[in-house]
């Protein structure tokens, strides 16, 4: 066996010995992530104290604040300056109507007590830090 082949074989064996524990560690992280992901996907109903506890646990005390409709709407001057060339297939009236649209979204009680919800749905009610 030549010296070159012997060096290559020793190098390969050293790499295997060094990387073997890392492979085990990576595999355990994958399973831990998979269990966490399953818990987030699992749906159940949260009502009363259970709902407030779940919100507290998931959001860590940081929640979205309610907003007034007037804060969400654009003033007439704002969208008069809007570049309507960005929407060549819409009429100006239709584009203005879309700017005033506000969806009535259900609250956390309707989402998670009246029907089952996931941790991800609860997380959508959390605020940003």
UniProtKB/TrEMBL annotation:
The keyword Isomerase does not apply. It holds the Pfam family Insulin. Residues 44-126 form the Insulin-like domain. Keywords: Cleavage on pair of basic residues, Disulfide bond, Secreted, Signal. InterPro entries: Ins/IGF/rlx, Insulin-like, Insulin-like_sf, Insulin_CS. Coiled coil: none annotated. It is found in: Secreted. Residues 1-25 form the signal peptide. SMART domains: IlGF. The keyword Nucleus does not apply. GO terms for cellular component: extracellular region. Heterodimer of a B chain and an A chain linked by two disulfide bonds. Belongs to the insulin family. This is LIRP protein.
